[in-house]
Amino acid sequence: MSVISPVAVTLRPLAAEDNPAIASVIRQVSAEYGLTADKGYTVADPNLDELYQLYSQPGAAYWVVEQDGQVVGGGGVAPLGCSEPDICELQKMYFLSSVRGQGLAKKLALMALDHAREQGFKHCYLETTEFLREAIGLYEHLGFEHISEPLGCTGHVDCEVRMLKSL
């Protein structure tokens, strides 16, 4: 009888050399769910290939999930642009199907919310789409509440699900 060892999964801060890998994950997951650039989803973000530079800004942070040396997911938090200075945004939470359902998104989101509190944010906002039902369930479980009007100037015009959480 052979024993299969568990796959090593690491959650760590984004490094500059991770830019191509996390952009690829985001594009792959977006394609899986039909989230195309022409509809204003994350894959249309002009900084998608430069996430390390984006999340190196004050108040921002991004983490990647690495499995057997490969980036398989990630997520982060940053100040919400064009908004009140005490509101941040949970951003770019994407995970390949191979690591979904293991609690990694919850762990990463909790890290991001802790970081946001440490940075002095009072609220965390997010936008998503109804196509991402599992994500919405997680956000509701974490205490995010649905709101009707968009906040900030995210540019994600087709993200019809907007949520807010007090920190």
From TrEMBL:
Keywords for the protein's UniProt record, in alphabetical order: Transferase
Domain N-acetyltransferase: from-to ranges: 9-167
PROSITE patterns associated with the record: GNAT
Record Pfam families: Acetyltransf_1 (PF00583)
InterPro entries, sorted: Acyl_CoA_acyltransferase, GNAT_dom, NAT_camello-type
Classification via CDD domains: NAT_SF
Domain of life: Bacteria
The keyword Transferase is assigned to this record: yes
Keyword Transferase among record annotations: yes
Protein's recorded name: N-acetyltransferase domain-containing protein
Organism: Pseudocitrobacter corydidari
Top-level taxonomy: Bacteria, Pseudomonadati, Pseudomonadota, Gammaproteobacteria, Enterobacterales
